[in-house]
Design a protein that fits this description.
The protein is built from 12 helices and 14 strands. The protein has about 375 residues and is of the alpha/beta class. The chain has 2 domains: about 1-100 and about 275-364, Isopropylmalate Dehydrogenase, CATH 3.40.718.10; about 110-265, Isopropylmalate Dehydrogenase (3-Layer(aba) Sandwich), CATH 3.40.718.10. The strands form 3 sheets. A 10-stranded mixed beta sheet has the order 2-1-3-12-11-4-5-10-8-9, with helices on both faces. Helix 1 packs across helix 10 (about 300-310) and helix 8 packs parallel to helix 9. The longest helix has 18 residues, at about 15-35. The model has no long low-confidence stretch (mean pLDDT about 95). Bound molecules: 3-isopropylmalic acid (IPM) and magnesium ion (MG). Magnesium ion binds next to helix 9.
């Protein structure tokens, strides 16, 4: 029986449309072999939505996303919109999508592929074998806390304010996702906070510690965020699953990404308690190389694999896409961001074609 899925595509800005086009072709290739039928619908987000509809997240886009089985998002933002007021920034559209769909759990796996060890800025012996997952809280913390704004003080000086706040229930639900994720991995969970300074972090630490009673099979440790950042570059292999708040997760996931050689390789999944998830690369819209066919589509393609695995329960199809990515790297295909001596540098489209070839070979 063929499974039908409605997928909303949000190509967004910069390199977004290029990497999305490659990814859709890949998904079309696997449809037949896995008895899947995708119905794709496109919608606007970010700068593209601002230009066309005057808002970075038009109501119609959120509605389309809600009425789909999963959402694939490429990237948003660019120099052109950087000076707009905050409520009209492309980033505001992305944050609105996350909160509108209540996607509180962001899974960001960072695995070092043997073929790319030399693309890492760290030494081979430090990164070889790294396989970790950052579980980032995505709809709370300082990104959404109130009060926020820039206010005039009595002296007339301006004062900028943001608030880092977490409720117990918000900590518990992301904690549970993280313990469950750790259970499916190597049963080690490291919770990252700043409990030596911040009350909100002390509550975080207390709740995560309390939750650990329900997961006696998972070894729980705690690190302060500054130390965690250092440990990630000093000895990343000590980590299995990391759970942390929105801001710390934003920062640590970029560091984790770079361990693997390029942020152009990392996918992510944003999930809620129910409803469609959003699957997107960790990297941004790279406006400096947009439209030049230089982008690395692999993080986007791997995000589609995460969609199949975590959003649609199609693990076999996900496995095949991931295997095709490994295969093209094994064949020496690289985009500029991950090139090393002796490899063949391909553009975004040609990388897509190499992937399609690898997929058609694996179907035989
Ligand atoms: C990310 C990005 C976003 C974030 C930006 C674009 C708003 O950096 O997904 O990591 O800060 O969450
Ligand atoms: Mg980020």
């Amino acid at each position: 029986m063929t499974q039908e899925y409605r997928i909303t595509l949000l190509p967004g800005d910069g390199i977004g449309p290029e990497i999305m086009a490659v990814t859709v072709e890949i998904l079309k290739t696997i449809e037949a072999q896995h008895h899947i039928n995708f119905t794709f619908q496109e919608a606007l987000i970010g700068g593209a939505a601002l230009d066309a509809a005057g808002h970075p997240l038009p109501d119609e886009t959120l509605e389309k996303c809600r009425n789909s089985d999963a959402v694939l998002l490429a990237a948003i933002g660019g120099y052109k919109w950087d000076t707009l007021p905050r409520n009209l920034r492309p980033e505001t559209g992305l944050l609105g999508l996350r909160s509108g769909l209540e996607l509180f759990a962001n899974l960001r796996p960072a695995t070092i592929l043997p073929q790319l060890i030399d693309a890492s800025s760290l030494k081979r012996e430090v990164v070889e074998g790294v396989d970790l997952m950052v579980v980032r809280e995505l709809t709370g913390g300082i990104y959404f806390g109130q009060p926020r704004g820039v206010f005039a003080t009595e002296s007339g000086e301006q004062r900028g304010v943001n608030t880092m706040a977490y409720r117990e229930s918000e900590i518990d639900r992301i904690g549970r996702v993280a313990f469950e994720a750790a259970r499916k991995r190597n049963r080690k969970l490291c919770s990252v906070d700043k409990a030596n300074v911040l009350e909100v972090s002390q509550l975080w630490r207390d709740r995560i510690t309390a939750l650990s009673a329900e997961y006696p099979d998972v070894e729980l440790t705690h690190l302060y965020v500054d130390n965690a950042a250092m440990q990630l570059v000093r000895a990343p292999k000590q980590f299995d699953t990391i759970v942390t708040g929105n801001l710390f997760g934003d920062i640590l996931s970029d560091i984790a990404a770079m361990l693997t050689g390029s942020i152009g390789m990392l996918p992510s999944a944003s999930l809620g308690a129910s409803g469609p998830g959003v699957f997107e690369p960790v990297h941004g819209s790279a406006p400096d190389i947009a439209g030049q066919d230089k982008a690395n589509p692999l993080a986007m393609v791997l995000s589609a694999a995460m969609m199949l695995r975590y959003g649609l329960n199609q693990a076999e199809a996900a496995d095949r896409i991931e295997a095709a990515v490994l295969q093209v790297l094994e064949n020496g295909c690289r985009t500029t961001d991950i090139q090393s001596p002796g490899t063949t540098v391909l553009g975004c489209q040609a990388m897509g074609e190499a992937l399609m070839k690898a997929l058609s070979v694996s179907a035989k």
